[in-house]
């Protein structure tokens, strides 16, 4: 596979525009009664027309048989090898609450919990306290400074929070303090390597100060940390691809992932119509737009086949407003499959279509899992999506003499 | 992908013969009026029969979306990973004039130019002097010896020449002396690394001596060098594949690329008929033949759709003479696409066919971009072409026990 360094050498800025529409969890499995997948069941005249005029294929976000999380699924689409660039749990949780991370940050997921007088955990979720109380408690712990490291504590939901450690030379090679069961005391945070000793010491001091602060806040009288992760400090899309990229996404985590690769995140509404309206408003200011539709994945996770079909119907109905802008390259695909019958992400490859003036159309006349198998693009790696997009937008120079 | 070292372990010599027919730039895009590509528009009864009896697929010379230069396009077909083995500008220019390069050589592209009394460039092309004068001036500069390094200067065309530096331990990590604009003096050649300092010093001494020699040759009173490159010293096909390979190509650059991988270059005429005649004459002496047809690419570069169709017609008409020899394996493909509508190389995958007694035919009955999509070979990397060829010629042993 061609690497980012090599793409960088041949990428050139042009006025042409690329739109990447990600219908999260789009790929599905047949309904037991109809034998049709969610996409095959939806009414998609506009997507079918794009497929007829364009080229189709099936992408593997990570590799055959591998079920992607949201982060690797998106990173692959953005051109970043998800086996090389990883986004840890703590970082993902921070992105999910729109926390403004910086390079060098170490983030961890946190729980408020209950301990007894001997320090043994009696409730790992502190009675699932309300998000409101969680927010109050986070304010008590927020913005400590320990040995020159600033610690930010932000609520997530119920008993869950995020702790971000900001300072020089912090490593995230740290074991969880959460023992994952009740009847034991929380563990000390232990470093995997000598270089992480300082971070471990600061995390333990933070936990100790938090315990003191929370002494009278039973049932939330202790905190536990897990999923320590380091800001991945990814190369920016502007540097690698010579693009001016913008993200239009309603859910914080996807905005956060987009920020990690240097996209400008545009404020937008919750529906696909509003997202396309946002795109139209900013059409002149960027040359790459990532549009994210979360609801197909949510319906799939809920096992709601009909709801997922409805989401796809709606995306298709909204498409003419996007096509009206006539971007040079339009791609429609997903970060992974979320078949309603499996109620979760799956390993199945994802239908992909690319529409451009220069795409050498194939014989596919319908956008569906089955039709895309016969597409000219065949089955390919999601990490190749960006080179294909750039090529079709005439944004890549020749490789080699 | 299996590596050259691993192929070498299992390759064995046999009397069977492989013919690789490269129709340069074969892949195309539909004509706006007919909706058919160049290949789909040509009359190709012989290619279609080969496709019916053989297997087809689509190859990516480098990777999805990547437009190959001629060197990486060919190296990939010859089985050499073009991301690993690179051929720089200066080397390619030397190959293009049939210069006999040796391992260790450093080559640069050169310009005669005009400087004024203060040394500032007033014409980067010295008034585009005639090729004849260029040849005379090159003779004045040819075969200097500086600090034990022999320097060969050979004309290319008009104001352009090639300079080849031959000596021990020369590196090509050198910046151009050509500032790429007029109104500035030529730059000194600067080394990228301390190891290249000696090469930089010799290049600068050469330029200084050339300037003295050319003092009275206004407008060609100075030289500039750019695109310094090192002979890539590739493993030979005979060693890697246990083949006796021959190249039949009319254009120097392709003969040069073939030499780089250790092919014997056979003298031949300019037409496909003459090339096939050459092949027949030497049929007993080699077991791998690379035939190169340049004109499809040239027509594509010129944007001449009809001309390109005509070249493909002619290749097809000449094929019976080749088929008459009944080589065990025939492959027809290209180093890259050159769609007439794009007037240049492109990233589109390239139709590929392989004909052999042992190929397990698929359902493809026509040699075209669209038909090859459904071929048994699917979409695959050009670097796999050689293993396929060797396998079908029964020249590869089992891998592993």
Instruction: Round the Cα radius of gyration of chain A to an integer and report it.
Output: 23 Å
Largest sheet of chain A: 8 strands, mixed
Runs of chain A with pLDDT <50, length 5+?
none
Mean pLDDT of chain A: 96
Instruction: Name the assembly state.
Output: homodimer
Strand content of chain A: 15-25%
How many runs of DSSP E, i.e. beta strands of chain A? 14
Helix and strand content put the structural class of chain A at: alpha/beta
Query: Can you list the strand order of the major beta sheet of chain A?
Result: 10-9-11-1-12-13-2-14
Topology:
The structure is a homodimer of 401-residue chains.
Chain A: H1 4-10, E1 18-23, H2 38-41, H3 45-53, E2 55-60, H4 70-77, H5 89-96, E3 106-115, E4 121-123, H6 131-141, E5 144-146, E6 149-157, E7 160-166, H7 197-213, E8 222-230, H8 237-241, E9 245-249, H9 252-260, E10 264-265, H10 272-281, E11 288-293, H11 295-301, H12 305-323, E12 329-333, E13 350-356, H13 369-372, E14 378-381, H14 385-392
Parallel strand pairs in A: 1-11, 1-12, 2-14, 9-10, 9-11
Antiparallel strand pairs in A: 2-13, 3-4, 3-7, 3-8, 5-6, 6-7, 12-13
Key traits:
14 strands, 6-stranded antiparallel β-sheet, alpha/beta, 401 residues, homodimer, 14 helices, globular
